[in-house]
Amino acid sequence: MNKPENKRVSAIEKVNASLARRYAKERRFRRVGFGAVVLGLFFVLALFVDIASKGYTAFAQTHIELEIFFDPAVIDPDGTADDDVIARADFRQIVRQPLREKFPEVTGRKDKRALYSILSSGAPYQLLEMVRADPELIGARQTVALIADDDIDMLVKGHIDRDSDAADRRVNDTTIAWIDRLESEGAVSLKFNTGFFTNGDSREPELAGIGGAAAGSFYTLLVTLSLSFPIGVAAAVYLEEFAPKNRWTDLIEVNINNLAAVPSIVFGLLGLAMFINLFGLPRSAPLVGGLVLTLMTLPTIIIAARASLKSVPPSIREAALGVGASKMQTVFQHVIPLAMPGMLTGTIIGMAQALGETAPLLMIGMVAFIVDIPGSPMDPSTVLPVQVYLWADSPERAFVERTSAAIMVLLAFLIAMNTFAVIMRRRFERRW
Amino acid sequence: MTNVQTIAVDSELTDGKVGPHGGSQPIDGDFKTVGDVRVAKPRMSCTDVNVFYGDKHAIKDVSLDVGKNQVVAMIGPSGCGKSTFLRCLNRMNDTIDGCRVTGTIILDNQDIHDRKLDVVPLRAQVGMVFQKPNPFPKSIYDNIAYGPRIHGLVASRTELDEVVESSLSKAGLWDEVKDRLEQPGTGLSGGQQQRLCIARTIAVEPEVILMDEPCSALDPIATAKVEELIDELRENYTIAIVTHSMQQAARVSQRTAYFHLGNLVEVGETTQIFTNPSHKLTEDYITGRFG
User: For strand B99-107 and strand B42-53, is the pairing parallel, antiparallel, or unpaired?
Assistant: First the structure.
């Protein structure tokens, strides 16, 4: 740089000479950044499209419409109208009767069994529930859309390749012929799958629903929220506003930050050892799940709450103290209300994390196959992400779409919660 | 008087630094304030006040009286400790970690830095207006009503309404805001916000009002209003004001104290300080040679 000829070049010429290189650098950087965003969006989109394309069919369920004769001789031969009698009645006969009438040519024992199996094993219970809801039906004739078996469901939705070798598919040619005949008669229909949202888990895919898992998730999050929010906020307020700043509080702060990074399965093991083995709380219960997730979300909430307390300008504290408010009044009447949106945002994000958490719940037995929908946080249950895990493990083709559908429901909840958090933050964000 | 502590003040300027005043009259530990720090009718009386921020010695053996129904102005270059000293008068320094205050500050025959003294009634008695207007993000009404409410000064809503009106009137803000008391205080202009803060301070009926550069964030017109207000408030209140503007000190105060690097250099009648300063540092500062 000290060469004499360089000295004659004026500063502006040097600036001009370097401009092209500087701008090129900037353009390169922008392109790389843009590429990163596009790549990220592409993966997210690919994920969503994949899940949605696999899962959307699960929201419809194949039904077969048959004219059912609610035969009093079968349901309630003595006309007692007693619920117990009705519950013991053999509704399978009533379901099978119209099939036999429709396909009189099917005679063999094996063929008949195949014919009956085009309907779900839940179909008789469907009729039982109808009769229970309306006893007047006994003796009546009515066209009822009965739930089809999952294999038929897959066939109708086109997930089974009719041209493939008969040995490779779960539906044989005879059954396909029956279904085609029913379809041509307009007896096969796709209806909105309400059972998917209201039913508990089942071994039969057409009967399996996320109702139980959703209830389990609800109770688990209820326990988590009602514990982690007050504890987390109280801890944050104490640490930020009242605790002296010394080596101990520094140590606590470091440890809280460390806890946020502990793998969640470790919390699950802790919960297993503490809550179940030591305190004797019930296994598989949302109560224990909620306790474990509380441990897991506490650091998140404490860190978010402290950050939002820190962001309240000191001038507000001084203003309150200046008119003679006590420390307590200053904190509770001024600082916390102003920090609340940030605290709630942190809490919602923590809850969203907890909703999607699987590993720690596996450790405390929330991975069991549970058909009943839990009625309280003490009942054994599972949660949405664990349900996804369970279904993803099942061999039936119909569970593939249900897995994706359950993921869609889970994602919908997560997106809703995060959107709510963002809206809250936007809405209550204050500029000082 | 139990808190009095003799501090051996190390000379801070001996590390080769030369003062901004060109080396004349160096400040050292044996610094002696020029002028009479005492007044005939003191409302607050400070003796040998020292303030430390950790290791930093921010205020060095300052003694000063705040005269009843007087405005005392504290002037000096940035970092001279005038704000720190002001904040000692209602113990706002308690909120700063690592801040330590020694010496005695007497209000009503009580050392306000006595551990046993409750700081809440002290701050009700010695109110404070801050540099930046800091209204609560609440309605104008609630800003004023907050103090009287927490101290239980009013028994009924009508009484509270009266307090709000009289406070806003005293602060010269009533006519401007009487139709929009429910609107947020943060929506007012800067000057109005500062007068709102003054109204909020006088709503709890303090005897002393501390003002920390109350006009530094205001334009000249708003400043003029606030200065006028300070002059009116002097009838009923004792006021200590920190300011960067020497003109302001000259306009609003009766006594002026000049601070320099944590020392109280000179104190006296405002007219005397501005026309005939005794100390070289004061003279340099007010004639604009530095600062």
Answer: antiparallel
